[in-house]
Amino acid sequence: MRFIYIFILALVFTSCEDYLGGDLNADPNNPVTVPVSAQMPAIGIALADVYGGAFSRFNSMLSQQVEGVARQWTSFNQYSGLTPNRFDAAWQNVYENVLNEIQIAKAASLADGNNHYLGILNIMEAYTLMISTDVWDNMPYSDAFKGLESTNPSYDTQDAIYASVSRLLDEGITLLQGAPGPVSPGNDDVFFGGDAAAWILAARATKARGKLHLGDYSGAMSDAMASFGSAADNWQFQYPDANAAAGWYRFNRDRTGDLEFHPTMRGIMTAADDTLRLAVMDQIFDPSHTYLTADYTLEMISYREMQFLIAECDYQVNGGLTDDGYAAMLNGVKASFARLGLSEADFDAYAASGNLPASAGETTFEQLMTQKYIAMFLQPEVYSDWRRTDIPELSPTSGSIIPVRWHYSSDEYLFNSNSPSETEVDIYNDKVGWDN
Asked: Which pLDDT does position 14 carry in this prediction?
């Protein structure tokens, strides 16, 4: 019940724009300071909501795991509807409800010497910057969050954004390895309950993902091996119930029939006789979906992603899988079965059926990445994987090219004089910096 109260409080902070009530004698130009412990759940839930919402839906659609089949999602699926205004909400949530709130909370944490709060906020900031630059490329950052001092913030390059990500993660780890300060995070941390060691593992996993994007395979593998030891370590958020439900459940409830399982993914899994996992994924997208439930656990970054990352890096470093890389791939597939509620015996039967490579030497890069594509169902990261590797081979649903990035927000085009113009951004050809 306590979690429900925290969730509701967070929704108030992230959703309400009107001030109703309070001290009528309070000066609206000098608002009462909100304690970091009150900001933390709002920031965490806002981050989970945008990652499991717009990022998951658009990236999964562009990667052909889901298909837009009704209303405006039909035009999105054909790419013609991917106009700047479609990304307004995601941009606003990232900047206003996550990054800006983090800056405020960090300033208070620094002033009060609350080092563990500051460390966690650094990691969340780094993560948010990474997922954002991965779809928007260059972004306002170093010149942003200054209010009237910088109403038209300049854009940082993706290289600069990634450098900031690396610095923030390193600083977060260092802070969490030290003394917490006067006040320690607890239940206000909706991801790990203030567990510093868990956050350090999450930071290592985030570093590994970033290094993989940049082609630093040895570094990525090293960080991944220092991250999650099992799915119990995942950086994730457990939604409570239908009253405070997960993003996919809310979408399927309110927009039933707009998105459905994609024929491309169905064909890949059918060809591999991957019937058990397919049965869990390939259901009508409505509130009765047995996987996309109200109390869905949203993964920000997971053990199985790290295992596939280790396998991919092993393959790249060694020119093929070693036995260790092969074991990591199998760990990733097995964790995918568990994620979907299937048993170890189900995995063993699938592995024994000949539908997985029998050894490291028999595993092709395409087989490895196809297994990751299946295992990462509805994870936004699958769009980055596809852009990096061109696996699986996808055919555009319209025209000759699949979009390789998102448009900036329409408000950004209109009101930031340092933004590129809409006509200067080609979502079909303007690849993000690491997509080479």
From this structure: 44
> What is the rounded CA–CA span in Å between residue 434 and residue 93?
24
Residues 314-346: b if buried by 16+ CB within 10 A, e if exposed: bbbeeebbbeebbbbbbbbbbbbbbbbebeeeb
Rg value, the chain, Cα: 21
Kindly state whether residue 390 falls inside one of the protein's structural domains.
yes
Note down the domain range covering 72: 2-17+39-245+262-288+297-424
The identity of residue 66, as a single letter, is: V
Cis amide bond preceding 357, omega within 30: no
Residue 433 domain-assigned?
A: no
Where does the pLDDT of residue 13 fall: very low under 50, low under 70, confident under 90, or very high at 90 and above? very low
Query: In this predicted structure, what is the pLDDT of residue 148?
Result: 81
Section 411-430 average pLDDT: 97
Residue 193 pLDDT exceeds 80: yes
The share of the chain scoring above pLDDT 70, in percent, equals 93
In angstroms, what CA-CA distances link 327 with 205, 308, 313, 357? 19, 10, 13, 11
* 238-267 exposure pattern, b = at least 16 Cβ within 10 A, e = fewer: ebbeeebbbbbbbbbeebeebbbbbebbbe
- CATH number (domain holding residue 97): 1.25.40.390
Asked if the model's pLDDT at residue 23 lies above 60, the reply is no
Residues contacting residue 304 through CB under 8 Å, at least 6 positions apart: 231, 331, 332, 335, 336, 339, 375, 376
Looking at residue 326, its amino acid is: Y
Cβ atoms of 65 and 392 within 8 Å: the answer is: no
Q: Which helix (H) or strand (E) segment is 232 a member of?
A: none
Candidates 239, 254, 338, 255; CA nearest to 293 is 239
At 32 the pLDDT is 54
| pTM of full prediction above 0.70 | yes
Q: What is the pLDDT of residue 3?
A: 44
Number of domains, the chain: 1
Residue pair 56/376 in contact (Cβ under 8 Å)? The answer is no
**CA–CA separation, 251 vs 260, rounded Å?**
11
Q: How far is CA 239 from CA 7, 52, 242, 298, in A?
A: 9, 11, 9, 8
Amino acid occupying residue 187: N
Block residue for tokens 């927009």: 255
Instruction: Report the distance separating Cα 89 and Cα 46, nearest Å.
Output: 12
Of 309, 317, 325, nearest to 359 (Cα)? 325
